Amino acid sequence: MANSVASIERGKLDRGLTFRERIDPARRITLLAAGAVIALVLMLLVFIAFNGVQIFTASGFSFDAIFNATWNPDSTTAQSFGILPFIAGTVGVMVVAAIIATPLSVGLAIFMAEVAPDWARSVAQPAMEVFVGIPSVVWGWLGITVLVPFLRDDLHGIGFTLGFSWFAGSIVLSLMILPTITSITFDVITSIPAELRSASVALGTTRWQTIRHVVIPAGAAGIMTAIVLGMMRAAGEALAVQMVIGNRGVMPTSLADPMSTLTSEITLDVGNTVAGEPWNQVLWTMGLVLLLMSFGFVLLVRRLGRRRALG
Question: 99, 149, 199, 211: which is deepest, by most CB within 10 A?
Fold first, then answer.
């Protein structure tokens, strides 16, 4: 309803423009820039989709031949291009990273927005900005030099024989997405009307009861959006994860197992393949799958944003 009203109002404004305003160069440049961005996105989508289906159309592989759990592309006798291990690895790393990062991020956002004094908030917010600015390779290097040896030496008895593992990749990713979830959750909480808090306190509730029963429910849709955006960041990360995850094209069975993800396998293999060959084509298919996963996240974010607006 609100979108319809806004569209009607924009139409009225457009009809009210004078001839000089309609041909104004700034307006034309703005429209041209917007159109160029849209055209660029569409071309990228078409290009990735076209190359992503070549394994089926040009090489004649069946759906079952690609979406299975056997990955052995460099075999001279029985090549197999099953990408399910990489899809499972991508989803697994994202989910575990989100499970680790979400309570820390939401707790930190609540602390900064509702509990922390001004001096503590002035320290925590710049720290989050520093986290955002750390390059991926630094996180990966810290993972190799600190996390992987710790897992291998101190947790060897529970299965971490190599240290390079699903769990190591999830730990590194959780640190990388923590500032994203924290900053968005902080904005969501601070945008909640103060009247809701005042009404809760007037009923005799404590600060923590207000946070639990008023603030968090009121911002639930926005917090979920923050988590989904953090998972989108995790899905597209390649370098840091590639450095600590082990990069094995096998289905993961435990958090201690080495594995690989779609982005890691694409970056590792794309330089070793020849354009037009099945191995190269299946990498494009991985990119298409990753793009479809991103679309799913975008649709989920929009749905959550609509629920938040209606709420």
Answer: 211
Distance between CA atoms of 215 and 194, rounded to whole angstroms?
10
Question: Is residue 22 very low, low, confident or very high in pLDDT (cuts 50, 70, 90)?
Answer: low
The residues near 136 (Cβ < 8 Å, ≥ 6 apart) are 176, 237, 238, 239, 240
The amino acid occupying position 263 is T
Handedness of CA 275, 277, 279, 284 (dihedral sign): positive
Tens of pLDDT, residues 211-267: 988 999 888 888 988 888 888 888 878 888 989 999 888 888 889 999 999 999 999
Mean pLDDT of 299-311: 71
CA distances from 195 to 130, 198, 214 (A): 33, 5, 11
Query: What backbone torsions phi and psi does residue 162 show, to the nearest 5 degrees?
Result: -105, -25
Q: pTM for the whole thing?
A: 0.83
Residue 2 binned pLDDT confidence (cut-offs 50, 70, 90): very low
Q: How would you write the chain as a 3-class SS string? A: CHHHHHHHHHHHHHHCCCHHHHCCHHHHHHHHHHHHHHHHHHHHHHHHHHHHCHHHHCCCCCHHHHCCCCEECCCCCCCEECCHHHHHHHHHHHHHHHHHHHHHHHHHHHHHHHHCCHHHHHHHHHHHHHHHHCCHHHHHHHHHHHHHHHHHHHCHHHCCCCCCCHHHHHHHHHHHHHHHHHHHHHHHHHCCCHHHHHHHHHCCCCHHHHHHHHHHHHCHHHHHHHHHHHHHHHHHCCHHHHHHCECCCCCCCCCCCCECCHHHHHHHHHHHCCCCCHHHHHHHHHHHHHHHHHHHHHHHHHHHHHHHHHC
